[in-house]
Design brief:
This protein is α/β, with parallel strands linked by helices. A 7-stranded mixed sheet has the order 3-2-1-4-5-7-6, with helices on both faces. The protein binds S-adenosylmethionine. S-adenosylmethionine (SAM) binds next to helix 2.
Length: 319
Amino acid sequence: MPEEPYKAEPQKAELHQAVLFNESIDALNIKQDGIYIDGTFGRGGHSRAILQRLGDQGRLYAFDKDPEAIAFAETLFHNQNQFYLAHKSFAELLVQAREWDIDGKVDGILLDLGVSSPQLDDAHRGFSFLRDGPLDMRMDVSRGLSAAQWLVKAEQADIATVLKEYGEERYAKRIANAIVKARTEKTIDTTKQLADIVAAAHPAWEKHKHPATRAFQAIRIYINRELDDLKDFLAQSLEVLAPEGRIAVISFHSLEDRIVKQFIQRQCKGDDFPLDLPVTQDQLSQRMKKIGKMIIPTEAEIAQNPRSRSAKLRIAEKL
Ligand SMILES: C[S@@+](CC[C@H](N)C(=O)[O-])C[C@H]1O[C@@H](n2cnc3c(N)ncnc32)[C@H](O)[C@@H]1O
């Protein structure tokens, strides 16, 4: 157990309801004196569970892009001498691990992707089409363009590409056209404005799904470089992990899951050689092995937390 008690208990309104919680903590196979990274601190649900399993020699390092998550971590783990924090993207994993002098020594890294409940629930963050607020959508509000700033200048074709590629939106062109038309009349700077424009332009509303769901997901992924950050992270993870160190990634949509799945497959398979070339297992340079099958939430978890519906957990271990 950590020496210092936690300074503050989170207030209920600040809590994030973690998904596949026990499964992801078990996935890390935590050793008391191990070194772990929580790449997505959020409100620290996973970090707390990891710290509780560490002995005096164990260490936990955490990342979050969101200044509010960082401020929360600083309060929650104030005086916690086994805990280190970086206000950075996990895409900067390797540089930061070198700074911490833990590259090649890490026993487990967890990513619990997407947005946290406090981010989604706070209308001022602009993530939700259900709550009217400024159209921001940045996880890191200290840098980069907000969704509103991007939509002021973006080319219609670029908007359509984002909607199609990151939202898998069939009517991307039509919606992009409506956005560009609407912005000539009035700047689009609130979530409600954008949700209304998309809803009016969308010709095929899906059952039980707000017509702006895909557009909001797409713009959020683009604004936060979510898929690029994930690819960058995965590429660096091998250098940061110790042998037998693990990655455990919880994703929430098929685009993310595909990236994780394909990365693990490639590392498990090793280098490509022509089929007729006689190569030994060693020469294949396999770098990882898959741990178990993909894990999804139970029906009970989905009933209790509908946000877990699309979650998938994949685990792999460095050889
Ligand atoms: C689903 S929440 C994590 C919740 C956390 N596991 C908990 O138990 O409270 C995702 C968090 O990851 C952060 N995040 C998302 N992408 C990130 C990235 N590329 N780098 C660092 N943090 C990121 C978000 O700001 C958010 O706080």
